[in-house]
Amino acid sequence: MKEKLYSDDDIRVLKGLTAVRVRPGMYIGSTGTRGLHHLVWEIIDNSKDEVLAGYCDTIRVTIHKDNSVTVEDNGRGIPTGINRDEGIPTPTVVFTVLHAGGKFGGGDGYKKSGGLHGVGASVVNALSQWLEVQIHRDGQAYKQRFEYIEEKANQEEQVGHPVTDLQVMGKTNKKGTIVRFKPDSRVFSETNFHFETLKERLKDNAFLLKGVTIHLKDERVSPNREEIFHFDEGIKAFVEYLNDGKTTLHDIVYFEGEKEGIDVELAFQYNDSSVDNLLSYVNTIPTIDEGTHVSGLRNAMTKALNDYARKHNFLKKNDKNLSGNDYREGFMAVLSIRMDNPQFESQTKDKLGSEEARSAVEGFVGEKMVFFLDENPEIAKLIIDRAIESRRIKEEIRKATEALKNPGKKKKKGKKSISDKFTPPAKRDSERNELFIVEGDSAGGSAINGRDRNFQAVLSLRGKPINVEKKKIYEVIGPNGNEEINTIVEVIETGIADEFDANKCAFGKIIIMTDADYDGAHIQILLLTLFYRYFSELVRRGKVYIAQPPLYKVYKQDKKKQEVIYCWSEEERSAAMKKLGKQAEIQRYKGLGEMNAEQLWDTTMNPSTRRLIQVDIEDAAEAERIVTILMGDKVPPRREWIEQNVKFVVEEE
Ligand code: 1YM
């Protein structure tokens, strides 16, 4: 799929870079860690486009000692001629003009490209202290450098200013583009790149770009850390990786082909868990909210399986057809399609809206599935039996949740009500209200007394919730389910499984509040697993948080008053000790139970002083793996993860 070479004139000019500097959030989402990494994704997008266009097979990413990053590809190299509109070289336009990019040229060169072709490059430059580009193209090497210049009088010229022309460096036999940039610490609250974050994302990209080699190097550590990703099996290897540690029920099924001008690639493999996990991509962009391609896939699978089930008498004459949902249990799949000009429903590109993707995927998968099922009767039987069982269980759950919906009736029968665990807020306000899920009775007591009763609710857990990862859904909720979890479902009011509706959630924030010790971390993980598995939409909407109680109280008692500073880290502790001087004393909090109601409010519940961690599932594939590692049968990786990722109070001798 070679496309015509893009000309230097096809680029349109829209706006200056200052706007990006003024409102970085609008362009990269945030100025925290996430936004910082976004800069790398923007540059890599250009290399990925070059891969999709068929000109590039290697991408290298290097994190340097000074936390600058280099991205290098072996594509055609950015065109180096003079741009018609601007009268300056194209690379200068690409890095200094906002929205300069092929996409805005309206040419016909846009096939199956991932991003907006070059659009992000100027944003990255705008938010960098400096940026250097090297281009190897048509046997010539070129170079240009840009800087943020403080002392320019004219604001427009401060940002991403070209400090050299596009210089010709001489002959080369290489080809490609090399971009190195240093994010500006005046913009970002955090300028340290995380190796793991880059690694996971690049690995996902390598799965999706079959046969492409992606290198990642970290020069900040000695010896340098290096990873190389290359998957000849593409998304088939992706599914294998996602199912790693799970019990799978059959070999991976893999279809690849083209229909109606759209390239479709699907790999799936059922496992013995009760969850459905489908990752979908369009031109390697993750479509977190799915869209037309996914509904095409589900329609095709359901229809092919139901037809087969009828034909082979798994479904009898009077049986209703199995629904798409019935086929979801244990379904692990990656769907990756490539198409021209995909249309997304939301600004954030999270949901595909293109109708032609539905029909192409539905048609393609439908044909392949019919054939596949006929060829593989054992797998067909296994999937259909599973779906029939899943339907039966869901029917049980429906009856069980019916019963849960009428707690009043239960109370009359003398069953324990939830009210002794749950203390609701004074008013209903599903936006403002907060639910604290608290570990232990004594902490629960402090939380109830310390809270602002107008909008804060407390749910006290007695003992650990069960590990939902290892349970069938009817062991989780309903009459034979887990009491703690039934209570949570009842309190948040969303329903569960097929009945789940995120819009019904009674709270704006759900805050998990546990001790900062191993047990607390374990409870946190059990609850996060529950939310990830059964209420993932709440996580996605950013409603789930982890409370951060302080680790220390540093205080000084005068005759009249006590001066107090709460501390969340060792650094804060030393600073507080310095500030309060010699007489300062330290109390280390081992658990929430040690704080009285007032202290708990001051440190952990009061919205204006507390610190919360918002739980987010940025990378669905990564979340899936973490949950599997943490909750699966293998204990060593779980311990390792907790030790690496959860901060505990350090025991003092
Ligand atoms: C490390 C970052 O930017 N690679 C890259 C960018 C471009 C091209 C090739 C390219 C695109 C086209 C034609 C085309 C870009 N070109 C432009 C623009 N790597 C990196 N590799 N020839 C080369 O789009 O048709 C923007 S990005 F607009 F100048 F064509």
Q: What's the topology here?
A:
Elements: H1 18-22, H2 24-28, H3 33-52, E1 58-63, E2 69-73, H4 90-96, H5 119-126, E3 128-137, E4 140-147, H6 155-158, E5 161-162, E6 167-171, E7 176-183, H7 195-208, E8 213-218, E9 225-229, H8 235-242, E10 253-259, E11 262-270, E12 277-282, E13 285-286, H9 292-311, E14 331-338, H10 355-375, H11 377-405, H12 407-412, E15 422-423, E16 434-439, H13 441-450, E17 456-461, H14 473-476, H15 483-492, E18 509-513, H16 518-534, H17 536-540, E19 544-547, E20 552-557, E21 562-567, H18 570-580, E22 585-588, H19 597-605, E23 612-614, H20 620-631, H21 635-645
Parallel strand pairs: 1-8, 12-14, 16-17, 16-18, 18-19
Antiparallel strand pairs: 1-2, 2-7, 3-4, 3-7, 4-5, 4-6, 8-9, 10-11, 11-14, 12-13, 15-17, 19-23, 20-21, 20-22
Helix pairs in contact: 3-5, 4-5, 9-10, 9-11, 13-19, 16-20
Residues 5-6, 11, 43, 46-47, 50, 71-73, 75-79, 90, 94, 101-102, 109, 117-118, 177, 179 line the site of ligand 1YM.
